[in-house]
Amino acid sequence: MVIINQYKNKMSTKFNFINIAGASDKLVQRGRGTLRNVVINTTAASGIVLYDGTATGGTKIATIAASPVIGSCFRYDAEFATGLFVSVGGASDITISYGA
């Protein structure tokens, strides 16, 4: 499958993924990229926050409220400039797909 980035007219055929299980602050990628989606594998009574940055002080991209439905897929296709950083507040298990 070929995906065309409508903002930069560049083609991308590859997305990376990372699985995060449990409460964690994680730098997913440093530098420019695209947040494709977040899949909820298991859920907890804490929220999930994604930032354009290398720490929690970056520009907030999205907040997923506490206790999202298991199997939910949040599609963003949001570009980030500094990095992709995620803060998982509880025992959720999530998979994030992103591209460089």
Topology-level CATH name: Jelly Rolls
State the order of secondary-structure elements, H for helix, E for strand. EEEEEEEEEE
Tell me the name of the CATH class.
Mainly Beta
Structural class: mainly beta
Shape summary? globular
- Strand line-up across the major sheet: 3-10-5-8
The CATH architecture? Sandwich
Radius of gyration: 13 Å
> How many structural units, i.e. domains?
1
Major β-sheet annotation = 4 strands, antiparallel
Number of helices: 0
Distance N terminus to C terminus?
17 Å
Description:
The structure is a single chain. The protein is built from no helices and ten strands. The protein has 100 residues and is mostly beta strands. The protein has a single domain (16-99), classed as Jelly Rolls (Sandwich), CATH 2.60.120. It has a four-stranded antiparallel sheet with strand order 3-10-5-8, with no helix packed on it. The two termini are 17 Å apart. The model has no long low-confidence stretch (mean pLDDT 90).
Layout of SSEs?
Elements: E1 3-5, E2 10-12, E3 16-21, E4 24-30, E5 33-42, E6 48-52, E7 59-64, E8 73-80, E9 83-88, E10 93-99
Antiparallel strand pairs: 1-2, 3-10, 4-9, 5-8, 5-10, 6-7, 6-9
Summary of the model, kept short:
Helix content is 0%, strand content 61%. The chain is mostly beta strands and 100 residues long.
Give structural attributes:
100 residues; mainly beta; Jelly Rolls; globular
